[in-house]
């Protein structure tokens, strides 16, 4: 039996609810770890360590990372077939299906460890280049990289 995916966050969150809907749609087992935003649990050291461990060079569980890289690799293999048929995930036009991939994929391709999962797939890499090269997304990345005000 596969290890269930852990989803951290409140189900009322639009980001978390999008993830939950996808997992339920595909019948993927998951464990919801509700993070109480009103209690500021998302500011706890445990949550911040989970969310930002790679950025701050916190020790991570290599076995868990390897398992999840294998899962991601399978997803990317499926995605490799989509841009063979269409320019974007849902057809010939940029849609919410593409847009919803921008934040997480940006994070992944900015790491040496995960970038290869995308760059070694010709169609996925072309698709990523096209959606991440959109002016709107470039502006978001600029905002993310700007020093705090």
From TrEMBL:
SUPFAM superfamilies with a match to the protein in the record: GST C-terminal domain-like, Thioredoxin-like
PANTHER family per record: GLUTATHIONE S-TRANSFERASE RHO (PTHR43900), GLUTATHIONE TRANSFERASE (PTHR43900:SF96)
GO MF entries: glutathione binding; glutathione transferase activity
Membrane-spanning residues: none
Catalytic activity: RX + glutathione = an S-substituted glutathione + a halide anion + H(+)
Gene3D superfamilies in alphabetical order: 1.20.1050.10
GO biological process: glutathione metabolic process; toxin catabolic process
Segments forming domain GST C-terminal: 22-149
Root EC class: transferase
Species whose genome carries this gene: Dillenia turbinata
Keyword Ligase found: no
GO cellular component terms, A-Z: cytoplasm
Family from the record: Belongs to the GST superfamily. Phi family.
Entry keywords, A to Z: Transferase
Record has Transferase as a keyword: yes
EC number: 2.5.1.18
Protein's name in the database: glutathione transferase
Top-rank taxon: Eukaryota
